[in-house]
Fold:
Amino acid sequence: MIWLTDNIQFPDYSFASPEGILALGGDLSEERLLHAYKNGIFPWYSEGEPIVWYCPTQRMVLYPSEIKVSKSMRKILRSSTFIITENTCFEKVISNCKNIDRKDGLGTWITDDMEHAYIKLHKRGVAKSIEVWQYSNNSQNQELVGGLYGIEINGVFCGESMFSKVANASKIAFIHLAKSNKYQLIDCQVYNPHLASLGAKEIERSKFLKILKDQSHSLK
Structure:
């Protein structure tokens, strides 16, 4: 396994393990994270472990035009049950993603260092969030009940995490993101049955990297 140095560079994709691990170590500086995402690489590790950098051979993605919205979800979206905003409270969204209880009992993989690093990227206008609100019972106050965050890079939204405090809240955020017409592709990183039910699918790493490259050229 290759350990990173202070130089902001990564090994060739051919060095990735079957699980998609490309390298270990390094840091979460803004420059390294931006370089990583521009090359289809993302960090994923737990507190107390070295930083693990991934670039899987199969990439879970959603083409926004292929989003699947059930009849029941369309009804919810037409109702006034939820209010959706963008980039109004990024720090609250990532904090909820970090601390929410997960049904699988695996806990969070968002470390303190990762939280701080993505907040810095948000302040640079690179990390984005979608927020879902609901009025509290017998109150005019809105409560944050769901959302997601990720990195906007070269016309692709690289999703990092989402959370729900009530049924369907994260799903509403994801559908809103897909229907925003802002991105050619939404990167979901690795296979997830919940996102597969919404239309996401796996594509080859080479195809995903080509989309990133083509988008990069189109923006120059």
